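Hi P.,

Sorry for the delay on this. The queue was packed all week, but I finally got your sequence through. Input first:
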Amino acid sequence: MADLFDKCRTYTAAREVMAAGLYPYFKPIERNFGTEVIVKGKRLIMMASNNYLGLTVHPKVIEASIKAVEKYGSGCTGSRFLNGTLELHEQLEERLAELTGHEAALVFSTGFQTNLGAISAVVGKRDAAIIDRADHASIVDGCRLSFGTTLKFKHNDMADLECVLQKAQEFEGRLIVVDGVFSMEGDICPLPDVVALAKRYDTRVMVDDAHSLGVLGKSGSGTSEHFGLKNEVDMVMGTFSKSFASLGGFVAADESVIHYIKHNARAMIFSASMPPAAVAAVLACIDILKAEPERRERLWRNAEHLRKGLHSLGFSTGRSETPIVPVVVGENEVTFRFWKGLFDNGLFVNSAVSPAVPPGHGLLRTSVMATHEISQIDHALEIFEKVGKELGFI
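Then the structure:
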């Protein structure tokens, strides 16, 4: 018989990258200034964060967090279901329902748990979840935890989605789950086409707006608002670890749906609730989102400046059309070497290689904030140019 831990002892992939001095993960940050960070005493431009509106260091967000700790303590020490619901949680749920245009909302401890809990609760054993092949891992795992059947369609391919929907008619209930903004590619779901097909085939729609909240839509409420479809999407999921500078997630839908999820989502019932400081931070971020619309304008200006600059240097940014701007590199080792060159020259970006992306499609995931100065973006472009030439990439 094999030892259960044999797979652990024989796993060498990450150690080989470490030995080569190219390991890009688990880099401890010593100080965070928002657009810049300190790592091992070295100051770097931060273009790896999902802090799209730059609110993690906003004075009002920090003040709200401190006041919440002073009033409620450091944690809730229990689940929402039992002793872990604060008045702050309910206030936040009311604000989120208003923001997304739904009757009700439910807050979870993390975004990942939100998809695990919501999807596994509503998709039953005679139902089907129909997902984009590029959907986030939490959506995939939420489908796995459900008792339903998971069907996949090619990324943003509406012809393939219709083929899948035709085959899915045998199931009692059907739920299409898509990302509003895809977290690696930076492209936007063609939601009007998804909604039209869903209506044709009597199927519900859920949109994961983790990377859309605060970014898309006139008021920053996400993909549905961006396309003028606020009343056409059945469920909206969002996270607080991006534009809302905190930790946690939520799902919004009709009151009856939220009531059902509240009493059936194991990921919520059996998890400790969001701590007071995290909830207060999100409430402050929603206030700032409404009071300072110019932040979103700066965010989009910065994204376009970075994308145009990369294109002018000869880099490919794939299908990006949002503040997520990937630079397509290729093989894993080349991607790691490119990442290290950027890091050593003062630029912090993310590295994504297979199996996170298809083999041979490794990329460097950059993302901008509303608070980046144009001079910082220009300096980042200079670093990209220098490393790209040194590696013979451009």
